Amino acid sequence: MTTGTVMAQRSGISYPQTRKTDVTDNYHGTSIADPYRWLEDDNSADTKAWVKEENTVTQSYLAKIPFREAIKKRLEVLWNYPKVGAPFKKGNWYYFYKNDGLQNQAVLYRQQTLDAPPEVFIDPNKLSANGTVALGSVAFSKNGKYVAYLLAKAGSDWQQAFIMDVETKGMLSDSLNWIKFSGLSWRGDGFYYSRYDQPDESSKLSKKNEYHKVYYHKIGTQQEQDELIHQDKEHPLRNAGLGVTEDERFLILHLSEGTSGSELWYRDMKDPAQTDFRLLVKGFDYEPSVIDNDGDKLLVLTNQDAPDYKVVLVDPKHPEKENWKVIIPEKKEVLQSVGTAGGWLFPNYLKDASTRIYQYSYNGKQEREIVLPGIGTAAGFGAEKKDKELFYSFTSYVSPGMVYKYDLATGKSSLYSKPEVKFNPEDYETKQVFFNSKDGTRVPIFLSYKKGMVKNGDNPVLLYGYGGFNIPQTPGFNVSNLFFMEQGGIFAVVCLRGGSEYGEAWHKAGMMEHKQNVFDDFTSAAEFLIKEKYTEPSRIAIRGGSNGGLLVGACMTQRPDLFKVALPAVGVMDMLRFQLFTIGWAWVTEYGSSEKPEQFKYLLKYSPLHNLKHGTRYPATLVTTADHDDRVVPAHSFKFAATLQEANAGPNPTLIRIDTQAGHGAGKPTSKLIEEATDIWAFTMFNLGMTVK
Q: Helices in 546-595 by DSSP H: which ranges?
């Protein structure tokens, strides 16, 4: 059966024929058809042929946009500047990441002093011809003799661990496979890591991930000899990670059920009588995490009885809540994280989605607030106890990342490095404004644009959001978004409910049965921009990725009249089946599950795939996904695009761009980032009636 022959004629695009099958599921007495179920099999010849045909149609459309090549050339110019990360010291060396400009992957360098010439330490660009091997976590042994690091291929979440001799840069023979959702935590002459059993090769990118295990690997041994530290045969859908305090005294076992809720166990390695893990903080109703130990006690960040988080001191021998000592009490602003350096604590707060950093002693005395350059995002407040300095980065929507050196004793920051970019940041500005959502909730939005913008109701707008999983949207520089501003566009970021901008209450107001609030916030933001004469519906594009892809899918199906362009990236589009693939089960704590009758009802109300209506005029849509996305499997986007092409009644194009040798987004090489940005901006600007200036 063809996908909407009449619609194809009106749009001028001949879409591929997408076969429909008679597949129906019964959810608690409700029958739901799933005619494109066969697209869930990413290995089938039919699916591969469909992907090829869809990409051909999409690329044919994009190739006809007259200014597409001009966009690519300008993006290459803007992208081509050195990007330097904040240095960190390990052993006798300072390390830092740097991308010269258009390198596919950042290179890890080292230098013996801050003035010494740097040398290449790890260059992932040499590990693949097309730059699709990315460097993940890097962890140094306590004595600084070894470094373990993770590599990911083609954007997959699966990673492989390797070990290098720091002094000689010689590789050890150790190679560890099937690592996923794991850090590397050294203790002695080995490290802890998390992995799954070896998956079946044909389904490793789609099969549900179960039975996460923690192992200890001793250097110089085979993976088969690794010591199993933790497994849970009774709870296959729990994830486990093991961390080590800086003095290597405490092992902290972190268990999670989905993306909300954790439980902490500990083992005191100085106590010869303790040979197993003991409960520290019972789960899974809150989000506790260990910051560090203070002697024989543990500093814990928690939102238990403190929705905006606090820091408490816990005696592991008497871990009951009534024995906790408050070190940093809950404030009006939400506490995001706490770093440690030089024997100090560095709590990181958000005030209206902008960073505030303070320096505290371990006993809870505030030493000072760290003065930041302005409204933006600061990160990197971590170093070892013996260090006298640390380095942190600061960025905003119109300012590329600058690095500052911070003196722990005096509290003085000095500019360490500033990128030389091929534009003038002074030509742009960011303004934070507030609007009332559908239910009256006050929501912030960041607006960034070229100075001199006139509120004439005709400015092109890219409206971006995420709204979920307790993840905040804070100011950050993106050269691709700068290009849109350079062309006269307004880049607008909405701090939706579901994030952590205002603590756990803000998060809970946008999850489970309250998820509709997130979509209402986003559409209310668009209505606000129209009302305030920034723009009009025919000039608005909406964009989001992953959970943000769900956001775009839900909003374009609920309010197709409000937006001209929709850009859902790697989105969760099938809210009835997401839990059946890879790590999707972990999102049940955020969304709910169709397996439960009441949750099925509200999931069905907003599931993008199931709310496409035949004969509706939808925005010009470019769905983006990738063949190696094993976080949100591409079947979500495949089925949504096929259904959208069948349902759409208007002239707007409804296309899908499926990247190859790429995944959910992490580790994507610069060349692919530029290609993708070129296509997205060409599609967006063409359909918003823009041209390249």
A: 547-558, 588-591
Cβ count within 10 A of residue 627:
19
Percent helix, strand, coil in the chain, to 5, is 25, 35, 45
Contact 3, 57 (CB under 8 A): no
* Cα–Cα distance for residue pair 311/330, rounded to 1 Å: 8
667 φ, ψ (degrees, to nearest 5): 75, 10
Q: What gap in Å lies between CA 77 and CA 622, rounded to an integer?
A: 25
**Which amino acid appears at position 440 of this protein?**
G
The DSSP element (H or E) to which 65 belongs, if any, is none
CB 242 within 8 A of CB 185: yes
> In the prediction, which pLDDT does 629 show?
77
Just list the catalytic residues. 546, 664
End-to-end CA distance of the chain: 43
Measuring CA to CA, which residue among 136, 217, 219 is closest to residue 180? 136
Vertex 163: Cα angle to 159 and 165 (nearest 5):
155
Global confidence as pTM: 0.94
Q: What is the pLDDT of residues 579-604, one digit of tens each?
A: 999 999 999 999 999 999 999 999 99
Both tokens of residue 448? 């960034």
Q: How are beta strands 93-99 and 107-111 bridged, if at all?
A: antiparallel
Cα 525–chain centre separation: 22
DSSP 189-217: TEEEEEE-PPPPGGGTTTSPP---EEEEE
Cα Rg of the chain, angstroms:
25
Residue 344, pLDDT > 60, answer yes
Sign, CA torsion 372/375/379/382: positive
Q: How far apart are CA 444 and CA 457, in angstroms?
A: 20
Strands (E), 486-640: 490-494, 540-545, 565-569, 620-626
Task: Give the CB-side neighbour count of residue 292, counting CA atoms within 13 A.
Answer: 23
Which residues on neighbouring strands pair with residue 239, listed in sequence order? Answer: 256
The upper half-sphere exposure of residue 269, i.e. CA atoms within 13 Å in the direction of its Cβ, equals 13
Altogether, the residues listed in the chain come to a count of: 693
Q: pLDDT digit string (tens) for 64-102? A: 999 999 999 999 999 999 999 999 999 999 999 999 999
Q: What are the residues whose beta carbons fall under 8 Å from the beta carbon of 58, sequence distance 6 or more?
A: 622, 655, 656, 657
- Token look-up 């209450």 returns 505
